[in-house]
Design goal:
This protein has helices at about 15-25, 40-55, 60-90, 105-115, 140-145, 160-165, and strands at about 5-10, 30-40, 95-100, 120-125, 150-155. By secondary structure, the chain is of the alpha/beta class.
């Protein structure tokens, strides 16, 4: 049996926060690794895209600003991971955080981290996406469920009635 921490994918949404709380109820006091995944290079690309689109050469200043934007995204991910750690500890888990910048899909990154950590489970929150939410699962969750060789705990976002009743 896997002996590492539970890997909890966290993006700061209500679904992710609910997943943390549910993980605490089910897994505490097990160690947990709260993982925030960001797409490597996305902020850089977004910052220089208008220049490329206009057919202009990219200047040193624009490159520097794009690198600063990329670094800010990583820093935000680290802060979000720490927020997740606080919530996980409040839920009774022995948590630490990890921000990962990767150019792979989020599910692939979470599964890689889980394998590296010898995790017994991956926990994620499922977001409601409108009327078809009952039938469809988000792409990250679907990919996790399709490819995982360990259990995946998917905690759905509360519906409006559940929110109103606490």
């Amino acid at each position: 049996m896997a002996s590492g921490p539970a890997v909890i994918g966290f993006d700061g949404t209500p679904a992710a926060e609910r997943a943390l709380r549910q993980a605490g109820e089910l897994l505490a006091p097990r160690p947990a690794l709260v993982v925030v995944v960001v797409e490597e290079g996305e902020a850089f690309g977004t910052a220089v895209a208008p220049v490329f689109a206009a057919g202009l050469p990219v200047t040193e200043v624009e490159i520097r600003n794009a690198l600063l934007a990329e670094e800010e995204v990583v820093q935000q991910a680290k802060r979000l991971a720490q927020k997740g750690v606080v919530l996980a500890r409040e839920a009774g888990l022995k948590a630490v955080g990890l921000a990962v910048a990767d150019d792979l899909p989020i599910a692939t990154t979470l599964l890689r981290v889980a394998e590296e950590q010898d995790a017994p489970v991956v926990v994620v929150g499922a977001h409601r996406r409108g009327a078809l939410a009952e039938l469809l699962v988000g792409s990250t969750t679907k990919d996790l469920l399709k490819r995982a060789t360990i259990p995946v705990l998917v905690v759905r976002e509360p519906d409006d009635d559940e929110r109103a009743n606490g």
